[in-house]
Amino acid sequence: MQFGNKGKHEQPLPTARGIRRSCSKELYRTIKRLKTYIPPEKVKEAEELYFRKVAGNLIWIAENGKNRKKLSDWFDEAVADDIAKLWEIDRDRLSHAFRNAFGG
User: pTM for the full model?
Assistant: First the structure.
């Protein structure tokens, strides 16, 4: 395949702005399902952390973009521990809320 010649079903990689917005929305929906107050500073920190993790793994995430279960599993492995520590909540509770919000 030539560079710049995209196939019919290939999607371009998302922009940094798009990734930030998606991360923010996903965490917002997760917080709503947690039914726990999270201070805005900690939410902002978690968004930055999540954004960095997604950006660092962007190719794999883009390839598996339609498989919500795989993406939720990745969140559990790569992100959930750090955000649970930051927010001082149970990791399993966070994972359950994220899966519920994300659809995986």
Answer: 0.86
